[in-house]
Amino acid sequence: MTTWDEPLSRGPLRGKTAKALAEKLDLHTLGDLLRYYPRRYDRRGDLTDLAALREGEEVTVQARVLDARRRTVPARQGRRRMDMMEATVTDGTGRLHLTFFNRGSYHQNALVPGRLAMFSGRVSTFKGRRQLDHPQYELLDEEGDTEERAQAYADELIPVYPAVKGLDSTTIARTVATVLADVDSLPDPLPPGLRGSRGLLGVADALRRIHRPAEWADVGAARRRLKWDEAFVLQLALARRRRQAEELPAKPRPGVDGGILDAFDAQLPFTLTDGQREVGERLARRLDASHPMHCLLQGDVGAGKTLVALRAMLRVVDSGGQAVMLAPTEVLAQQHHRSVNAMLGALGRAGQIDGADTATRVALLTGSMNAAARREALLDAASGAAGIVVGTHALLQEHVSFADLGLVVVDEQHRFGVEQRDALREKAVDGRPHVLVMTATPIPRTVAMTVYGDLDVVALTQLPSGRAPVSTHVVPAAEKPHFLTRGWERIREEAAEGHQAFVVCPRIGDDDAGEAGEEVGAAPEGDAPGGRPPLAVLEVAARLAEGPLSGLRVESLHGRMAPDDKDAVMRRFSAGETDAVVSTTVIEVGVDVPNATVMVIMDADRFGVSQLHQLRGRVGRGGLPGLCLLVTDAEEGSPARERLAAVAATTDGFELSRVDLEMRREGDVLGDSQSGARSSLRMLTLLKDEELIGEAREEATAYVAEDPGLEAHPPLAEALEALLPEERAEYLDKT
To answer: Between the chain's N and C termini, which has fewer beta carbons within 10 Å?
Structure first.
């Protein structure tokens, strides 16, 4: 029996061809080649009289060879000598010249004068003569219905494969045709019962139809079957992981009546929204479980995610455990630390004179803290004195330990790698901790995992009272510079009303590359449109202070500043002592200045969708309408302008993540690639196939429940093993 993992070098392909496929396309096995699907299909074109040919058309003609001759084109200017064959054909209405490069003797032996054939290609003109360069052709017998055969030849669907230098689509098509003869003996990974109930083709039939379709219906049927292969096997992997996760131990965190959570709720100066209360109850049920929670808390900017997360952390503290909040930057960690302490009040000052009886302690741990403060924070975490620990990547270091880590809250997960998040989970001493991931705009890979069913999602869709709408506009600075001038005037008008503004730039300045920790998948590095470097904080701040914003109090903020200096800038801004802050993305998340009403993002095309949405969320937080200006030099109609227009058109986080996904694809859900280029999914697309993916999840869950080891379905088990080798299995565990 032929196997999917049979090396191409041992099959019918010549060694040179197998080597080229391996080196240029990373195709090593029979399965690799058969799953290298055409990206589109062409038709040769309608049968056309020679007299009616038009330059640039793709045509198929039936004609007879009048003459054929070979000649040698001498080498010149670094080009090798070529063997060339030229022919003239006619159909009685006109003449057409054919040119073939290399293998001249082969074509001359086939196309002898008087021979009838069909020729397909693009019409061009050379020295006033119509011609086809290196056309495809098929010889016809004089007997039989040549006209019907010619029409069938013209109508045939021609697969077009993704090609690379040295391996064109035609060569790949010939190579695939060579191995298609072996597909009948391949094991079919989908069980017969599933194929029957879902009306799916057998795998051999599907492969023949996808690579050599007789009609468009063949392509549709084959695609549906092959998508099921990918969706079902992937869902099996996730279903098995979910089953194993449910068997992992985690300490339940049931909370207690009359504890710190009840005291916190009682002192809140506002009423929780229905959405916040509902999400809190759902998280409470998950924290009560004896297996780890892995939950994505999605909520638009300002929906109250931090409050919901804090209530979950207090529930864990009530149960005797500790909770950690991991933030991507020191600015955000300090902001969270101040915010949590402010919300808790006396409930966060355990051991102090004014501390409440049920109080806990909130510790802060960052990389720039002085030795004394760091020792105190480490001791509070290790002893359990601090029920809540807020920090940055410093929390991931080996010497950081906890008495009883029960909950890990990750703010803006796209700023942390899988390995980093996993390192923190390993610090629990009693089973695995529960994990809560917060984000306003999931990156494409997260959206993919959500739809595939590997993340438990809770969403805050209701904004608290007092949140004002934020209007967003694209400012094409190169095309309409007066729009940008008006933007600076708006900042002056807002400042006159006592309000404040942010101006964000992609670089710090002094030839730096940008702010560390930028979002994965943001716009590529390099010059901005027009050949200039991306705008920088230091230059823009000076220019604004001397020009459009002269007379206003303008300060800079960026990641190279000392932590105390950054904190001082934000404190002055929060206190209303500064009119405008020119910053990098250090203010992307968590910064809460209710008096800020304007956000200007310079070179906005340099930022990803998620970053733009997060930055926009820094304004309109205090009941005052917000304004966000996306300034760009990108040309109208370019992908960058389309991305900015999409951000301006909606404030819905999940909708924006779908826009991002359409532009970047979902990445490899079983590996560490964040972009679509390395995706293990060849046929399946997330947004178009959500319904099919859901059906595959139901089937996979049922199969795993009945036969966890897939012992009754060996071909399916082999397909799963091929999709999920050990290193990918470990990665999936961590995610």
So the answer is: N
Question: What is the distance between the alpha carbons of residues 21 and 17, in angstroms, rounded to a whole number?
Answer: 6
d(CA 734, CA 416): 13
The DSSP symbol for 589 reads S
Position 513 scores a pLDDT of 47
Q: How far apart are CA 39 and CA 21, in angstroms?
A: 17
Statement: residue 145 has pLDDT above 80: no
Helix (H) or strand (E) holding 243: helix 216-247
CB 627 within 8 A of CB 412: no
The 10s digit of each residue's pLDDT in 629-671 is 999 999 998 989 999 999 999 887 778 877 877 776 665 555 5
The DSSP annotation for 80-149 comes to PPEEEEEEEEE-SS-EEEEEEES-HHHHHHHS-TT-EEEEEEEEEEETTEEEEES-EEEE--SSS-HHHH
Q: Would you tell me how many other CB atoms lie within 10 Å of the CB of residue 498?
A: 10
Read off the DSSP letter of residue 429: S
Q: How many helices (H) and strands (E) does the chain have?
A: 24, 21
DSSP letter at 685 equals: -
Residue 257 DSSP symbol: T
Higher-pLDDT residue of 243 and 379 is: 379
The Cα 128–Cα 225 span in angstroms is 50
